[in-house]
From TrEMBL:
UniProt domain Amidohydrolase-related: residue ranges: 56-389
InterPro entries the UniProt entry points to: Amidohydro-rel, Metal-dep_hydrolase_composite, Metal_Hydrolase, Metallo-dep_Hydrolase, OTAase-like
Protein name: Imidazolonepropionase-like amidohydrolase
SUPFAM superfamilies (UniProt xref): Composite domain of metallo-dependent hydrolases (SSF51338), Metallo-dependent hydrolases (SSF51556)
Species, as recorded: Lactobacillus colini
Organism lineage: Bacteria, Bacillati, Bacillota, Bacilli, Lactobacillales
Length: 401
């Protein structure tokens, strides 16, 4: 067994609101996992040594809400096909890793591109974060994900459902393909052109079926949910996470805390639309986001301060919101009311726990994979430090950037 010891760093393990000064940690080069850590002089004689020059080390970011096959630009001219989506995904994944993202949960991808890439990776490796795939989402006719794709617009992004039985079938099809997460469209959304954010789309009974069927097969369920009633139905149904949560009520915040339901706010996605979307997006979508953005931050802030389980997701792939900019969400979470530690934990153990991979990811503890970032400044002092462009990125103990 060969090992590498990393010395002379300030280590944010991720489990407590503190940094270990003059720290060291050992990585097993064969497994890519941490074996030991401490402060002061490393007592072990290890052949390979890396001096981190008193910089700050933290876990790689886990992004719990991504759309890896999407193109966040608005000037694209080509049709959305499996070929273009796969090209986008491979490019986005590599850039995402460079931006410090080492694990993602996919939340809806046309053509099941994320599922296929996750399976292909075993034989055909490529650079990028680890992937928890979802494939096609589940939507009602005219709902938030009812959108045609393909060379001739002859395929749909989503499973279009009209009944509880339709939902059961859709979940089972995704299970057969190899999805690990099910994405439900509980409400309307900002970018869809035919609905409002408070349109309640999937019924309570339909979402209960999705959760029941998915959980029986060790899959998680996330719900795009912006309007109050749709959020309420999703929480009652027992989803693992509420995505966005524009109008999450006090009642549902308390129920989420009781059940352990996570909130993945994706504040960056809304912020980018408001700041940069005028004249580039449809006026319908731009005005919707401008109308709701204040309430979005207020309700999310209330949920954070109330102690709801918090994950970090960005809706990467939406307008002006590439995966490599995931660290921006840390700043937005703090703006909404999170402490620096709460935001960083959301991007580490929070998202890892939601994805059920916290036994191996999400913090820099012995026994977990050595996915870490090396930064010039202390992220616990200022979370914007994680946006450093030239940061070092390690995955399973190997430097990637």
């Amino acid at each position: 067994m060969t090992e590498t010891v990393f010395v002379n760093c300030n280590l944010f393990v991720g489990t407590e609101d503190k940094v270990l000064k003059n720290a060291w940690f050992v990585v097993d080069n064969e497994t890519g996992k941490l074996t030991e850590q401490g402060t002061g002089e490393c007592p072990r004689r290890v052949e390979n040594k890396v001096d981190l020059k008193n910089q700050y080390v933290m876990s790689g970011l886990l992004n719990s809400h991504t759309h890896i096959a999407a193109d966040p630009r608005t000037d694209k001219w080509y049709p959305e096909t499996e070929t273009s989506g796969t090209y986008n995904a491979l490019k986005n994944l590599e850039k995402g890793l460079q931006g410090g993202v080492t694990y993602i949960r996919s939340c809806g991808v046309a053509f099941d591109i994320d599922v296929k890439l996750a399976q292909m990776r075993k034989e055909l490796p490529f650079d990028g974060p680890q992937i928890m795939p979802a494939g096609m989402p589940i939507s009602i006719p005219g709902g938030h994900a009812d959108s045609l794709v393909g060379e001739n617009n002859d395929q749909n992004v989503a499973h279009i459902v009209n009944s509880v039985d339709d939902v059961r079938k859709a979940v089972r099809l995704q299970f057969k393909k190899g999805a690990k997460n099910i994405k439900l469209m509980a409400t309307g959304g900002v970018m869809s052109q035919g609905d409002q954010v408070d349109d309640t789309e999937l019924s309570l009974e339909e979402m209960k079926m999705a959760v029941q069927e998915a959980h029986l097969k060790h899959m998680t369920v996330c719900a795009h949910a912006q309007g109050e009633l749709g959020i309420h139905y999703a929480v009652l149904a027992g989803v693992d996470s509420i995505e966005h949560g524009f109008y999450v009520s006090d009642e549902d915040i308390e129920l989420m805390k009781k059940q352990g339901t996570f909130l993945s706010p994706t504040l960056t996605a809304g912020n980018q639309i408001v700041e940069h979307g005028k004249g580039k997006l449809s006026d319908f979508s731009y005005q919707k986001m401008c109308t709701h953005v204040k309430a979005f931050y207020e309700h999310v802030g209330k949920a954070i301060r109330s102690g709801v389980n918090l994950a970090l997701g960005t809706d990467a792939g939406t307008f002006n919101n590439p995966l490599e900019d995931t660290a921006k969400e840390l700043v937005e979470l703090v703006k909404a009311g999170a402490t620096n530690y709460q935001a960083l934990r959301a991007g580490g153990l929070g998202s890892a726990t939601l994805m059920k991979v916290d036994d191996e990811y999400g913090s820099l503890e012995p026994g977990k994979y050595a996915d870490f970032l090396v930064l010039k400044n202390n992220p616990l002092t200022d979370v914007a430090a994680v946006q450093q462009k030239d940061k070092q990125v390690y995955q399973h103990g190997v430097r990637k950037f």
